[in-house]
Each structure stands twice: as structure tokens, then as C-alpha cells.
Design a protein that fits this description.
Helix content is 38%, strand content 26%. It is α/β, with parallel strands linked by helices and 189 residues long. Strand 7 (151-160), helix 6 (165-173) and strand 8 form a beta-alpha-beta unit. Helix 3 crosses helix 4 (79-92) and helix 5 packs parallel to helix 6. It is globular and about 40 Å long.
């Protein structure tokens, strides 16, 4: 049975509803950056959800629709489901998009690769993440893809925490930074 295609505006609206309902946890938390916050946006509750993940793929592909890239990925774990959602959304649209995973450290066995998946050497790639606070994860991924001989065209994230990561990524990595939803969109500002 063929599923009806979801238009981008509908996908964007529904994904925002799902993020607000399922991913925002209120209460004092310590973020991976070491910073403290009064809420946590757990986007793995979205990017690994059977209803929301396909919407992530549609929304993120639309966010980067004007860019020239043929592979997408980032630092494991936050980037992995975002990249695969985009891969599946591309396939559903009759297009080809490869995904890759940047390990936090190279393997000590096997091929000892830092980047898993189809080779990205010589290719334009989009670095993705689920949510961005400091920019450390996408900056590490940008460096890893450059080291692997790929050209990062931009960093794209589902949600930006408005903590200066975008400016840092633009300044330190020299690539564009995009996000699908702001703190205002999520009702957190």
C-alpha cells in the first residue's frame, strides 16, 4: 500500500507539535556541555519515533534544499537518526542520498575508520545534529569529514538552543549554519 506524500508545511507543523508534546522535559538538567538548564529537549524521542522520524527527514531535507550535497551525517549519536531520516525521505522522493556516521574516536580494530558508511572522500556533505548548544559536536564532525577528504557545505540541526553555536560554527568552521526550529518555535524563549 502506497502512503500519501506529506507536504513540507504539514510536516513542519506536525513535527513541531510532536517535539512540543514528546521531547521537551522541564526541570533542572545538566547538558552535555556542562551548562545547566531548566529544560531538556530530548530529540532522540523524536528522531527515533515512528511517526516523527519521517517528518524529520522531510523537514531537514527542505531546510537544506538549496545546498549541493550527496551525503549527510555527523557525530554519533545525535546525528545518526537525523541522517537516516533524511536518507529515507530522499528515497521516498525518488532521490539518492547517502548517510555516514562520525565516530567519537577511530576504531582500534578492523579498518580503523573514524567515519562509517559509504566513502565521503571527494564529496560534498551536510553535517547534521539533533540539537545544538555549544557547537562542539558539529565542529568535531566538520573536522572529521575534512580529514576524510570531503567538503562540508553546512551544518544543519533540528533545534537551536540560541547559545551562540551558530556563530561559533560559522566563525571556526567557515560553513553555513541552519536550524529548523528556534527556542521561540519550541515555546522555550
Amino acid at each position: 500500500m502506497t502512503q500519501p506524500r506529506t507536504d513540507v508545511a504539514t510536516a513542519r507543523t506536525r513535527l513541531l507539535e510532536l517535539i512540543r508534546e514528546r521531547a521537551i522535559v522541564h526541570g533542572r538538567v545538566t547538558l552535555s556541555s556542562g551548562r545547566e538548564a531548566d529544560y531538556y529537549v530530548d530529540l532522540r524521542r523524536i528522531s527515533l519515533d515512528g511517526e516523527a522520524a519521517p517528518l524529520v527527514g522531510i523537514v531537514m531535507r527542505d531546510l537544506a534544499s538549496d545546498l549541493d550535497y550527496d551525503a549527510v551525517g555527523g557525530l554519533t549519536l545525535g546525528a545518526d537518526p537525523v541522517a537516516t531520516a533524511m536518507l529515507h525521505a530522499a528515497a521516498a522522493a525518488g532521490e539518492r542520498l547517502d548517510a555516514f556516521v562520525v565516530r567519537k574516536a577511530g576504531k582500534a580494530h578492523g579498518l580503523q575508520q573514524r567515519i562509517e558508511g559509504p566513502s565521503i572522500h571527494g564529496r560534498n556533505v551536510l553535517v547534521v545534529e539533533d540539537t545544538t548548544t555549544t557547537g562542539n559536536s558539529p565542529l568535531e564532525a566538520v573536522q572529521a569529514v575534512r580529514d576524510a577528504g570531503a567538503t562540508p557545505v553546512a551544518v544543519a540541526t533540528i533545534a537551536d538552543r540560541a547559545t551562540g553555536a551558530g556563530e561559533r560554527i560559522r566563525r571556526e568552521a567557515g560553513v553555513d549554519y541552519r536550524f529548523a526550529y528556534s527556542l521561540e518555535d519550541l515555546g522555550l524563549a
